Backbone:
């Protein structure tokens, strides 16, 4: 399992939320098995999106795709350039 983490500042969280929700079909075509959005505590426009993939290769390919970058432009209002990170699970443990 691998995660693609996208970090960016959005101009308006409600606009981001609308685009994120409406973009589910296109997002799924990129291969993620699931998606979640978070905000930094106390900073509602500082967003983190986490997408689940079967492999790091799939996550990297999705991060490089034009469709993802277009969706980010619509969702953020071009406020900031996002950063992308691919995380690969290497261990699992009980809390």
Residues:
């Amino acid at each position: 399992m691998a995660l693609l983490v996208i970090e960016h500042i959005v101009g308006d969280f409600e606009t981001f939320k609308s685009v994120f929700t409406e973009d589910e079909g296109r997002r799924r075509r990129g291969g993620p098995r699931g998606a979640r959005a978070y905000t930094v505590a106390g900073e509602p426009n500082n967003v983190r999106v986490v997408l689940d993939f079967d492999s790091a290769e799939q996550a990297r390919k999705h991060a490089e795709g034009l469709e993802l970058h277009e969706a980010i432009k619509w969702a953020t209002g071009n406020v900031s350039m996002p950063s992308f990170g691919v995380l690969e699970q290497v261990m699992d443990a009980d809390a």
